[in-house]
Amino acid sequence: MGRAPCCEKLGLKKGPWSDEEDQILISYIQQHGHPNWRALPKHAGLLRCGKSCRLRWTNYLRPDIKRGNFTKEEEDTIIHLHEKLGNRWSLIATKLPGRTDNEIKNVWHTHLKKRLESHKTTTHDIKKCHMKSKCGSKVLYREEPAVSQCLVKSKHKSPNEERSSVSNHESSSRDSSSVVEQATTTNSTCVARNVELDHGTFLDDSFWLEALSCEGDNVIESDSLTNVLGIETLMENTSSNTSCNACDTNMWNDIFTHIEEELPELLEF
DNA sequence: AAAAAGCTCAACCGCTCCTAA
DNA sequence: CTTAGGAGCGGTTGAGCTTTT
């Protein structure tokens, strides 16, 4: 079904907004509100499309917008919510008064994502170090490219499938895709990190990802997912001021105890 | 001091959802 | 039920700014 373009391109201005345009938009909305964005620019005398006006207002001109750097608390909130909700920026924005989805998205891509990635590298190194030091010459750590079928399926869902699954069970599908995003590299391979537990259970990242991303009978509640992701946080807290030498057994006991307590169903897998 | 590289963020684009006719 | 159009969302872009070499 073909659609008319959202606005007539001809004669409409694009690019950065001038102060004058801002003032026109602000005063118009203060007087009339914005019942119809499409008609607004015409009524207000702006050579912009309605979409552009809406974006300018919601992302920049709204009086309740909080400007300036994000606080640590806000960043933590974003990270936490992103773990739970995935890239649903507008939903995340509702939990951060005064912040816009666009702003949050930018912060995520410019700061938080990189921070998490570097943190992940750090924890990865720590795990590696721990496995070697704890088990002596026995090599428990193995690194190889691996793509789980389940991940591929999740990643390559059609937009329709993804949308509908989001609306049907708010957090399962999109959550899993966010996990995939965090756990895979940019060329769609993922690094499998295998960990042998004291009682012989063998876990690796592809296991976690399969368990967490597959839909259907074994859908895991988002809270459980957060618990799993909380492991990373625990590791971050534990490792933040430490070097490899400090990878002590207690930390790992805490982590695996946490897993066993919170997610027994996974260990039975 | 100048050029190159990296970073930030406002804005655009294309898509889907929702709803009224 | 179908269609059209408005609203909103998330991904992406690129100009401008900052930092590094």
Automatic annotation (TrEMBL):
<keyword id="KW-0539">Nucleus</keyword>
<dbReference type="InterPro" id="IPR015495">
    <property type="entry name" value="Myb_TF_plants"/>
</dbReference>
<dbReference type="InterPro" id="IPR009057">
    <property type="entry name" value="Homeodomain-like_sf"/>
</dbReference>
<feature type="domain" description="HTH myb-type">
    <location>
        <begin position="9"/>
        <end position="61"/>
    </location>
</feature>
<feature type="domain" description="Myb-like">
    <location>
        <begin position="9"/>
        <end position="61"/>
    </location>
</feature>
<keyword id="KW-0677">Repeat</keyword>
<dbReference type="InterPro" id="IPR001005">
    <property type="entry name" value="SANT/Myb"/>
</dbReference>
<keyword id="KW-0238">DNA-binding</keyword>
<dbReference type="GO" id="GO:0003677">
    <property type="term" value="F:DNA binding"/>
</dbReference>
<feature type="region of interest" description="Disordered">
    <location>
        <begin position="151"/>
        <end position="182"/>
    </location>
</feature>
<dbReference type="InterPro" id="IPR017930">
    <property type="entry name" value="Myb_dom"/>
</dbReference>
<feature type="compositionally biased region" description="Low complexity">
    <location>
        <begin position="165"/>
        <end position="181"/>
    </location>
</feature>
<dbReference type="Pfam" id="PF00249">
    <property type="entry name" value="Myb_DNA-binding"/>
</dbReference>
<protein>
    <submittedName>
        <fullName>Uncharacterized protein</fullName>
    </submittedName>
</protein>
<dbReference type="GO" id="GO:0005634">
    <property type="term" value="C:nucleus"/>
</dbReference>
<feature type="domain" description="Myb-like">
    <location>
        <begin position="62"/>
        <end position="112"/>
    </location>
</feature>
<feature type="domain" description="HTH myb-type">
    <location>
        <begin position="62"/>
        <end position="116"/>
    </location>
</feature>
